[in-house]
Amino acid sequence: AQKVTQAQTEISVVEKEDVTLDCVYETRDTTYYLFWYKQPPSGELVFLIRRNSFDEQNEISGRYSWNFQKSTSSFNFTITASQVVDSAVYFCALSERNAGNMLTFGGGTRLMVKP
Amino acid sequence: DTEVTQTPKHLVMGMTNKKSLKCEQHMGHRAMYWYKQKAKKPPELMFVYSYEKLSINESVPSRFSPECPNSSLLNLHLHALQPEDSALYLCASSSRQGVSYEQYFGPGTRLTVT
Known about the structure:
Helix content of chain A: under 10%
Number of strands of chain A: 12
Order of helices and strands of chain B: EEEEEEEEEEE
Radius of gyration of chain A: 14 Å
Strand content of chain B: over 45%
Structural class of chain B: mainly beta
Number of strands of chain B: 11
Number of helices of chain B: 0
Oligomer: heterodimer
Distance between the termini of chain A: 38 Å
Number of helices of chain A: 0
Largest sheet of chain B: 7 strands, mixed
Shape of chain B: globular
């Protein structure tokens, strides 16, 4: 069974639109961490956020916001007023204590922001 | 400075060649990682070094040989590769190896095996 599911493989929006990238995870661990990474066409994965399983507070950083809901095992990512520079592949990832602490990535969502 | 550097940026090699990929970080991180990423797929973990010792080897073929000469450097030696090994090879580092530590990635080496 896939541990991290990003159901949206590709999303296309027009600049200034808001967009939400979905992430659903599966774990039996009580201690785990969730991450979001951005991979622009240049190839480098850029760390965006880390959230631990004990902290369900939502977070906002500029135009980015994250909604963590343990009840639905989801960790969704919203970009407000999208820009062309947001075009990239976004990966959600899970790190579990009982799985060797390694990152398990979702399949990624390719976001295309058109001018 | 959250920078991981990788050289070369691109590499084309024949199946009989021997080459090496290099990764460097100066953040004082004690865990370093090699990932392989095929097109339109997420990264797949290959190796983990923790305090310069090989911690995890995800059943990678022996034609890939990692080396960690010191806490800042990580190499991946390549020998007798196959065309299916063509991929983006990403290096990453984290403060420590552990569930809570975020990994910082380099820009990758795009490898083509002919």
